[in-house]
Amino acid sequence: MTDPYDIYADYQRRSQTPPQPPEHRASAFAGAGSAAHERLAAAVDDLRPELETLARTLYASPEIGFAEHASVGLISDVLAAHGIETEVGVYGLDTAFRASVGDGTGPHFAVIAEYDALPGVGHACGHNIIAGVAVGAFLSAVPIARELGATLSLIGTPAEENGGGKEYILRAGGFDDVDAAGMVHPAAGSRVSAIWGERTTGVRRVAVTYRGRAAHAAGTPWLGLNALDAAVTAYQSVAQLRQHILPIDRVHGIITDGGAAPNVVPEQASALFYVRSGEIDTLRVLTDRVVAALEGAALATGTTAEIEVDPVPPYLPLEPNVELGRRWADALAARGRQTPAPPPVPTQGGPSTDMGNVTQFIPSIHPSIGLGGPDDVFPHNAAFADLTVQPPAFDALADAAVALGSAAIDYLADAELRAAVQHEFEARGGRYRWEA
Description:
Layout: H1 4-15, H2 34-60, H3 69-80, E1 87-88, E2 97-101, E3 108-113, H4 127-148, E4 151-156, H5 165-171, E5 180-182, E6 185-187, E7 202-211, H6 227-241, E8 250-257, E9 268-277, H7 280-301, E10 304-309, H8 322-334, H9 355-361, E11 364-365, E12 368-370, H10 382-387, H11 391-413, H12 415-427
Parallel strand pairs: 3-4, 3-5, 5-11, 6-12
Antiparallel strand pairs: 1-2, 2-4, 7-9, 7-10, 8-9
Helix pairs in contact: 2-4, 2-11, 4-11, 6-7, 8-11
């Protein structure tokens, strides 16, 4: 196991002078120009009835990760109606897709779509809105991308909710020919119009199954080896670990199998833990510490532990590109929406997304837009799913599609902007690909 002391001490030194949020100002680059932006906005207005229908239909028929067959078919039908051919089942994933215009010789921007739902609460993370925004941004930008001699793609990424579709696509080379990318995520309430400097935590999953020996819990308990005791000991060990982890770390878990009957010493028990951290190196360290706690529980109870790290690909911390984000923020402001200053670099843990993996690989943005409604309605709740098909949500969808499409054509049209975007990306460390 990696000794965490040096990494934690380095984090402690850096945290004394945390980096400042990026300057909140307009982009310094020309982009595609006002005429192109006006054309794109008019195209989104024309597309709006189709985009609303797409979002409503996805809401009414939610599909969970890697099973989004009807959702992908619906999106493909919308693209086909506009003369765009879609490749479905790419990158070894049945419900991944790609639609592209351009011959690949010019700059290449990818618009990212998500469309999976959550079990039980449907589109409570608003992926139906994400899909609508992505389709609108892509279709409205297609004519301009063609005129520029650039390449524009719409990449459909399944199973963002606990599936890691984007990492699978990365491993299959799906982003190797892409220069920059972007997507938009919905948020709750009107107080959030755009956050273009936000980071997320990385997350890894650690699953464990303990195997012991069954026995009569009342008659001959001394003959048993209690796998549930191992799972409980593991849970408590991880709980004790929380006192000594970084502010950017989070660990949480559940016991997924605790035995079949109280009068039988459980011979098998299982648990699943999520390990999160705001940086890649600290994510690795925390994972090692959790694994050590799980191994210790087996030793303490005389059981054996089968530990699986990363049954789902890791989600890496999200690092949005500020220069590209400024193009998004300027375009959104032109639609009359507030673009609040970016928040300070977070010192606490938070949610995760596999879009983080893309931002570590190529310059990317992942801003959010408020859908209106009560400020106390949050994602992963059924009330949020209902919010996504209200009129204010469709206003947000249209504005976000315009802003994302505008950022895409600005990037494709402006060599100086592309150079600044790449310089920022390289200065942060450049291309990173996860290796366990």
